[in-house]
Each structure stands twice: as C-alpha cells, then as structure tokens.
Design brief:
Elements: H1 7-27, H2 40-50, H3 66-78, H4 83-101, H5 106-118, H6 122-126, H7 133-148, H8 154-170, H9 172-194, H10 202-233, H11 242-250, H12 252-260, H13 279-284, H14 298-318, H15 320-335, H16 349-356, H17 372-398, H18 405-432, H19 437-444, H20 446-464
C-alpha cells in the first residue's frame, strides 16, 4: 500500500471516491469527446499486430498515447466508470491532505475534498475519457515532492511517483510540465548547494531524484512507442505541426509564406489557397475548403515534418517581435479561459456516437453535459470560486507570520509552485495550440484547493496563538 492508514487520509480518500462516483451517476455515464477516439489508435495497432495482422505502411501519430489507449480499452470493456482516474485522483487528494493538514483532521479533510471534488472543474476531468486530469495531478505531485519530500515516507513518495509516471506516459504536455519543474528545481538546488545552504544529499535524494525518475520514465516511454511503432509499421509515428500551425494562425507564419512562396519551395506553398486559417482547422478540419494538414498526402506530411523547425526559425528571424507578442497574447487568453462549457456535447454528439457506438452508451441521455444552461450556471459558480480563492490566497500570503512557523513557510512555497504550474500549463497549451477552456480548466481546480488548505491551516494556527 502507498500510505499508512490514518483518519485524515482515509476521510479524504473515501470522500473523493464517493464524490466522483456521485458525479458520474448524476451525469449518467462517462464523458467523451470526439477526439477521445484518437487514443485508441496506437492500442488498436498493437492488438492487431499481436493477432498477426500485417500493418506495414500503417499510420500513427505522436501525442496520442498508446499507454492511455490501453487504459481506455480496459476501462470501456470491463468497467462502467473510469476506475484508474478516480483512484489516482483520490489518492493524490488524500496524500495532500495528510501531508498538509496533518493527522487527526478527518472532518476538515473531508469537507475540503468534497468541495474540490464537486464544485470545481475537477470531476468533469476525472470521468472524462481523456488524460487531461493527469495534468493537474502531475503539478500537484511535483509540488508535494519538492516541498514535503522529507516528510513523506518511502511508500508515499512511491505512490506520488507512480501517479506522475502515468501522467507523463499519457500525454507529452504533461512531460513538458514536469520537465519544466525539474529544470527550475535543478537550478534552485544548484544555487543552494553553491551557497552552502544545503550540506547533505538528503534534500536531493528525496525531493529531486523522484522527479528525475518521472521524467526519465516519460522519455523512455516515448522512445519505446516510437521504436515499437516503427517496428510494426515500418516508419516512425508522425508529428503534427503544432508550432507552425500556431504561427500561421497568429499571422507571422502566413506573412512569411506569402512573401516567400513559391520561390523557396516549402511544401506549405502548395496549400496557400486555404490560408490564413485557425490552428484547429489547420490540423483537424475535414471540410474540403477549410483544411490544410488533413488535405496533405503522406509524402507531403513527412516533408512538412522535416521542414517545420527550419521554417519556424525563418519566421522567428523575420518577425521576432510579432512572434513574441502573439505568444504572449495566446498565453494570456489561455489563462483567462477555464470554465466547463467546453464539455457541452452539442454538435459533437454525432461524431462521438459514430466513433464509440455502444461502448459509449446513450450519451444523449446524460444529464450534465447535454444541458447547456446547467453548464453555464456551473461555469459561473466555478468562476466565482476561482476568483474568491485567488483573493483568499493573496490575503493569507501577505498577512504577518503569526504562528504558522515552518508549516507556513512550506505551504507558501507549495502554493507558489501550484500557481507556477497553472502559468506553465497556460503557456504550453496557449502557445502550442488554440486556447480552449478545457485546457486551463484541467488545472484551475488547484487554486481553490490550495486556498481551502491554507484557510484550514490559518484557522488552526489562529486557535493555537496565545491570547493577549
């Protein structure tokens, strides 16, 4: 087991599991997106290969994890809900409550867990057939290990590392998030070591080494996927041109191509008729007059893959200020978008039913994601919860140190790392893709969670202060 049974942990864990199952029951089933089907691709290729089907010349893409595809196959065929996601999330919430609140505080842990598990966007992602929930769990795990690593038992660290490894295997953006934290932590630890403020190896081994293991596991899993698919299909999985698509949608990429095509001979020059175009349309559209990447032949896609980074470099050199400004604008837009209204099925229903059929059940009968007014009301409620949490964190952070001592210092660092994770997630999603509410909503629940934990700690410290 990854924990020592105590009342705080058990209360938070059971509350989370019950809350997520309740949300699942009220909705009437798992939540699916039209692109949830993309995660089945690699897994289906593997299963067909094991059955002896010749897949030479097949096609698979990076960014759609075969590991999550295997998890989805198991969930959909053997369980009516997402057990791994529910248990992973419940474990991380319970571990956080145990480390931050301390033992013997079951009612406080249960109340905070119930709010975050029902009144934030978190439950939407826990029962969603996408790996988005693991972005927030990865950020939470990094913050726990970096701040409370020396307080964690070996089994607790192993549990946190296991969840983070799932996160980095399930999507490349999660690996980017954890890798960014590790780079910052390495710089910080190096600075402390050089200033002789750290004089033993223990802070490195219990705080940094587990995160390095997570990053190496993510890189190893990605390499194994590439090599495995190349062995099965005879060629590496394709990489979609997210960065180039983003620059074309923002303007600098389109202006460069317009000025230098067809003289420079880029493969994109043959598709200028449909530019400029939104990045979502650029990458995914099936509309005959509003698509680019989906209209390319296999040979053109491979050529674009070889040319992309050279072309991106030329675009940056031509308009560095415009590229930087558009990246900052996309980042800011993504940070402002974190409601759950993206979960409204609406026009996605025919595509979802076509892909999942009987596995998805009757998605039209689901209560929450088929009610646009209900989702709008929930979004407004969650918006106010997030704003109130942000204001509360600021007020608690600027107050004088009034009795919290070391616990106060550690939690301020913990909350700071969570906010850093929100900023990094906004940068990764906003700058590399089209900003969507779903991308930031997958981590925004960390803000009210941190505010409630800090409020509970402050209330306890307030009660322990000697009266005047």
């Amino acid at each position: 087991m990854f924990f020592k049974a105590n009342s705080t942990f058990l209360a938070a864990f059971l509350t989370a599991v019950i809350a997520f199952l309740l949300f699942l029951g009220v909705n009437g089933g798992l939540i699916f997106f039209f692109d949830s089907w993309g995660y089945f691709g690699g897994a289906e290729v593997l299963f067909k290969h094991l059955r002896g089907v010749d897949l030479t010349g097949g096609l698979s893409f990076l960014g759609r994890s075969i590991y999550y595809g295997l998890l989805m196959q198991w969930e959909l065929r053997h369980a009516p809900f997402a057990p791994v996601q529910i248990l992973s999330t419940a474990y991380m919430l319970a571990l956080t409550a145990d480390l931050v609140l301390g033992r013997g505080r079951p009612w406080v842990a249960a109340a905070i867990t119930a709010v975050v598990a029902l009144l934030t966007p978190l439950p939407f992602f826990v029962i969603n057939a996408m790996p988005d929930v693991y972005a927030g769990l990865a950020v939470l795990g990094v913050a726990l290990v970096l701040v409370y690593g020396e307080r964690m038992s070996g089994m607790q660290r192993a549990g946190a590392v296991a969840v983070m490894i799932l996160a980095v295997l399930f999507h490349q953006t999660h690996l980017i998030l954890v890798g960014g934290f590790v780079a910052i932590a390495l710089l910080g630890f190096a600075t402390l070591a050089l200033s002789r403020r750290i004089r033993s190896l223990k802070p490195f081994t219990v705080r940094l080494v587990p995160l390095v293991i997570v990053v190496l596991a993510g890189i190893g899993g990605d390499v194994a996927f590439r090599v495995g698919m190349e062995g099965i299909q005879g060629e590496e999985p394709m990489r979609r041109p997210f960065i180039l698509g983003r620059m074309i949608a923002d303007g600098p990429g389109y202006r460069y191509l317009k000025a230098h095509c067809p003289e420079e001979g880029w493969v994109m020059c043959d598709h200028m008729q449909n530019l400029p175009i939104n990045i979502d349309w650029f990458l995914w559209s099936a509309h005959p007059d509003r698509r680019v990447y989906t209209a390319m032949t296999r040979a053109e896609r491979r050529q674009l893959e070889r040319e992309e980074f050279t072309l991106v470099g030329r675009i940056i050199a031509a308009e560095p200020g415009a590229v930087l400004a558009s990246a900052g604008d996309n980042w800011q837009r993504q940070l402002d978008m974190f409601t759950v209204e993206d979960f409204y099925y609406g026009q996605m229903v025919p595509g979802i039913e076509k892909n999942f059929g009987p596995l998805a059940g009757d998605i039209r009968a689901q209560r929450i994601v088929t009610s646009k007014p209900l989702l709008a009301d929930l979004s407004r409620l969650q918006l106010w919860i997030v704003y109130a949490a942000f204001a509360g964190l600021i007020c608690l952070s600027v107050r004088p140190h009034d009795g919290g001592g070391e616990d106060d210092r550690l939690f301020r660092l913990f909350a700071g790392l969570l906010v850093c994770g929100l900023l990094m997630n906004g940068a990764v999603c906003g700058m590399l893709s089209e900003p969507h509410h779903r991308y930031q909503a997958r981590v925004i629940w960390l803000l009210p969670y941190a505010a409630m934990l800090y409020g509970a700690l402050w209330w306890r410290w307030r009660g322990l202060r000697p009266s005047a």
